[in-house]
Amino acid sequence: MIEIDGSIGGGQILRTALSLSALTQKTFKIINIRGKRENAGLQHQHLTAVNSISKICNAQIKGNELHSKELEFTPNNVTPGSYKFDIGTAGSTILVLQTLLPPLIFAKEKSTLEITGGTANPLAPPALDIKEVFLWHLEKIGIDVKLEIEKEGFYPKGGGEIKVIINTCKEIKELNLLEHHKGNYEETKIIAVCSKELKEREVAKRMIKGFKLNFPIQNKILSEELYAETLSPGCYIHANYNYEDHKIGMSVLGEKSKKAEDIGKECALKLLEEMKTGASTDHFTADQLLIYMAIKGSGKLKVSQITDHMKTNIQIIEKFLDVKFNIKDNVIECIK
Questions:
Q1: What residue spans define the domains of the chain?
Q2: What residues have CB less than 8 Å from 56, skipping those under 6 apart?
Q3: Residue 289: in which H helix or E strand, if any?
Q4: Which CATH class is domain 80-171?
């Protein structure tokens, strides 16, 4: 049995362990779940991830209850199919999806998922970020996943919904993003998403204006304003910078204390910060790609920074898969 001390990080440790446990059919036990966090133990979103992946692999579980700090997970064979999961709060639908993707991608048949909860959460990338950037990278390595945002869901009521089609993949290609500057610049895409009650104040337009005023590249910029019916008011802006063979994304969630223009400005400056380092992709996307590099057993990418989140993620991956990650000068390489 693989043993994990959950106090070294947050929910990502649990999600990675659940994914790889279902994929490799290895049992694990985790103690001190989110032990150093103020609200330690399993929260609603984590519990949904546990119970949802348990459902797709008919796992035996001990400790799957709210606020539990210890969990033992014994998987069985993964069963593809159509599933619906409801977090019940504004907890991130995307973090639940991240948990389910690896085992379902390599299942015998395609699967469809409907997940209800938050689509824009301060502690996770918005669903749009995953659709625009992360899934683009998966497509590059031969993985076909389609995501549609049926409803946007903001804190505190949530009520957002994503629908996902996961096609099976027999073998993935190597992810090597070091030679990424050979292609031509294609476009910069900006999408501003707001609740309908913010339309009168032109919040989406103002966020986009704030972005453009602080982004030095002015050619081939595509922008889109989206207003949605939501249970709780909210807004965010997403932008991605595209070459033929690499993509860097950034999203910033709105806050009551921030002007719309400042939200757009923050997004532009953060995207520029990633771009100036020569990174292959943004560090949020890179963190999510590590597990797929490990499944392949090889791959390279350059990031703007090596985060503690990445380091703990790598520790968990190396417990389940016979791979080693080497890190030098912000280049992450996976080898067998």
A1: 1-76, 80-171, 185-276
A2: 22, 78, 79, 80, 81, 83, 100, 103, 104, 111
A3: helix 283-296
A4: alpha beta
Q: Which fold has domain 1-76?
A: Translation Initiation Factor IF3 (3.30.110)
202: pLDDT strictly greater than 60: yes
* Upper half-sphere CA count for residue 126 (Cβ side, 13 Å): 28
Neighbours of 83 (CB within 10 A): 17
Measured CA to CA, the distance from residue 46 to residue 216 in angstroms comes to: 40
Alpha-carbon 71 to chain mean position: 23
CA distances to 67, 179, 315 from 19, rounded to whole Å, are 21, 29, 14
78: exposed, middle or buried (C-beta count within 10 Å: 0-12, 13-18, 19+)? buried
Residue 318 burial class via C-beta count within 10 angstroms: exposed 0-12, middle 13-18, buried 19 and up: middle
Where are the strands (E) in the chain, listed by range? 2-5, 28-31, 60-62, 71-74, 82-86, 111-117, 145-151, 160-166, 175-176, 185-195, 221-228, 235-243, 247-253, 299-302, 324-328, 331-335
Q: Report pLDDT digits (tens) over 34-66.
A: 988 888 899 888 999 999 999 999 999 999 999
pLDDT on residue 284: 94
Strand order in the sheet with 175-176: 175-176, 299-302, 331-335, 324-328
**pLDDT on residue 182:** 61
Q: Is residue 309 annotated as part of the catalytic site, yes or no? A: yes
What is the reported pTM?
Answer: 0.95
Q: pLDDT for 270-329, tens place per residue?
A: 999 999 998 989 999 999 999 999 999 999 999 999 999 999 999 999 999 999 999 999
Collapsed DSSP state (helix, strand, coil) of residue 16: helix
- Is pLDDT at 240 greater than 90 in this prediction? yes
Q: 210 has which bridge partners? A: none
State the catalytic residue, choosing from 44, 46, 180, 309.
Answer: 309
Task: Convert the pLDDT of each residue in 6-26 to its tens digit.
Answer: 998 888 999 999 999 999 999
Q: What superfamily in CATH does domain 185-276 come from?
A: RNA 3'-terminal phosphate cyclase, insert domain (3.30.360.20)
The pLDDT value recorded for residue 315 is 96
